[in-house]
Design a protein that fits this description.
- This protein is an alpha/beta fold.
- Helices cover about 50% and strands about 15% of the residues.
- The chain has one domain: 3-Layer(aba) Sandwich (Rossmann fold), CATH 3.40.50.300.
- The longest helix has 15 residues.
- Bound molecules: adenosine-5'-diphosphate and adenosine monophosphate (AMP).
- It catalyses: AMP + ATP = 2 ADP.
Length: about 220
C-alpha cells in the first residue's frame, strides 16, 4: 500500500502518519524529518538544506528527490510506504510517478487534510518536538505529562526554528503557491480523499482508517 498525506503545515500529517504507520505496519517517510536529522548531524545535505528550511522555503527539487530516491530504495519500502511532506510540487509528483514507482506499483490513496487558517498558526506555534526521539507534542492540544520533557524518553522538548509566526506565514504562502496544485493533480488521478483536519486527532484517524480499510 502506498499512501500520501497532503495538507498545509501543521495540518496533522506527521501525527496521523505515526498512527497509520503503527496500525498498518508501513514505514512513515517524512522528508522534513530526514532534513532535520541531517541538519542535526551537520551533514553536507543538512548544510545545503538548512537555509531554505529555516526561512520557510522549499528545498530545491533535485536535492529533495535525491533523498527520497535513497529512502525508497531501502528494503522496508518494498511492501509499501506512507509519504508525509512529499511530494510538495508537481515536479516531485511527476518524478515519483515516472521514476520511483515500480512497474506493479501505484499510489493507492492521497489524503488531503484541510485545516482552518487560524488553527494552522496555532498548531505550528504550539508544536514542540523531542530533541532525542522526535516525538511531537502540542502545548495546548497534546501537552507532555511534565513540562518540556518527553513522556517516552525524557528528552528535552524544543520548538522547531521554522515554527515562529513569521516563518509559518511564509511556509503557508509557499504551500498555497507550490503545493496546492497537487490537490487538482490527484483529483484528476481519482485518488484524492479530502478530510477535515480541524477535528480531534482520534476522529481524523478514525476517518482515515475507514477509507484505508475500504480500499484494501
Ligand atoms: P504537520 O506534520 O502536518 O506539519 P503535525 O502532525 O506536526 O503537522 O501537527 C502540528 C501540531 O498540531 C503538533 O503539535 C500536533 O501535536 C498538533 N496536532 C496535530 N493534529 C491535531 C489535531 N487533530 N488536533 C489538535 N492538535 C493536533
Ligand atoms: P515538514 O517537516 O514536512 O513541515 O517540512 C519542513 C521543511 O522541510 C519544509 O518547510 C521545507 O523547507 C522542507 N521540506 C520537507 N519536505 C520537502 C519537500 N518535499 N520539498 C521541498 N522541501 C521540503
Amino acid at each position: 500500500m502506498i499512501l500520501i498525506l497532503l495538507g498545509p503545515p501543521g495540518a496533522g500529517k506527521g501525527t496521523q502518519a505515526a498512527l497509520i504507520s503503527e496500525k498498518y505496519n508501513i514505514p512513515h517517510i517524512s522528508t522534513g524529518d530526514i532534513f532535520r536529522q541531517n541538519i542535526k548531524n551537520k551533514t553536507k545535505l543538512g548544510l545545503e538544506a538548512e537555509g531554505y528550511i529555516h526561512n520557510g522555503l522549499l528545498v530545491p527539487d533535485e536535492l529533495t528527490i535525491k533523498i527520497i530516491e535513497e529512502r525508497l530504495n531501502e528494503k522496508d519500502c518494498r511492501n509499501g510506504y506512507l509519504l508525509d511532506g512529499f511530494p510538495r510540487t508537481v515536479f516531485q509528483a511527476e518524478s515519483l510517478k515516472k521514476y520511483y514507482l515500480g512497474i506493479k506499483e501505484h499510489i493507492d490513496l492521497v489524503f488531503f487534510l484541510e485545516v482552518n487558517l487560524d488553527l494552522v498558526i496555532k498548531r505550528n506555534t504550539g508544536r514542540r518536538i523531542c530533541s532525542c526521539c522526535g516525538r511531537c507534542y502540542h502545548v495546548y492540544f497534546t501537552p507532555p505529562k511534565h513540562k518540556d520533557k518527553c513522556d517516552t524518553c525524557g528528552g528535552c522538548l524544543i520548538q522547531r526554528k521554522d515554527d515562529t509566526e513569521s516563518v509559518i506565514l511564509e511556509r503557508l504562502s509557499v504551500y498555497l503557491e507550490q503545493t496546492m496544485p497537487l490537490v487538482d493533480y490527484y483529483v484528476k488521478a481519482k485518488i484524492l480523499y479530502k478530510l477535515c483536519g480541524d477535528e480531534e486527532i482520534t476522529k481524523v484517524f478514525e476517518n482515515m482508517c475507514k477509507i484505508i480499510d475500504n480500499c484494501n
